[in-house]
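Appendix B. Chain record.
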Amino acid sequence: MIVPSPYADLLTVMDARAHTRSVLGSDTRYWEYGDPDSSTTIVMVHGFRGDHHGLEAVVAQLHGLRVISPDLPGFGESAPFAALPHSVESYAAWLTEFLRLAALPGRVVVLGHSFGSIIVAAAAAAPAGIPAHDLVLVNPIAAPALAGPRGLLTRLAVFYYWLAAKLPERLGFALLRNRVIVRVMSITMAKTRSRQRRRWIHNQHDRYFSAFADRTVVLEAFRASVGHDVSEYADRIATRTLLIAAEKDDITPVAAQVRLRAQFADARLHVIPGVGHLIHYEVPEEAAIQLRLFLEQASS
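Structure tokens predicted for this chain:
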């Protein structure tokens, strides 16, 4: 069953074009949206276990801009790394190389959501940095996930992935893709009271949350996602940064986001009330508004 996206018409106007590029041994699939001649390009990096579809509701709000949104290696339609572990270091190196090969003209903005925020921060903090004028981190992982407001749930997730690793390959893979567990995760994270919106969010997770290449990829990426956070890299990032956080985020509390902002050389923090870790699904309009305001402030 497919629940139609409430942003389908807006997304059609953005005219998605699919491409493939070899990056660090991964045949990386990416989508280009919007005006190819725009002076501003936004490169988006999705979160753990997702793919580019998760950020399309935000993309739909960005008419007039150029957006490039790849699937991370090993997720969606992108091939896994051929000879690298699926670690933060590998993904940061992949993002740096992806941007180098793209050789984007004009103003470049790199946006990362959740696990993507860690990847973007790690790449930007590296000695060579990344060719970006601005960074936008949505639902940034500002502190260790195990120390978050729902640390118990994170520990249950650690056990879940540990069990999936210990089981025989076929059983472990089936457990990782179990629809009941995916639905429990989706119900836990969604904060909206709109039944229609929740139905769409759950359907998105049903369709795309298990689009990973194999058990090794998802287990390596999970260890990377809970073993690192943006605070490890923030004080080495000079690039102008916008943090878009959520009041009810189960992974990172607002207090940690405030501390994170202070670590950056130049960062702004916007907290959206009444929302959790799914800003990109629940209030993509607000995320896009804050992104546009951030870009306008730099231009004024």
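Further analysis of this model is presented in Appendix C.
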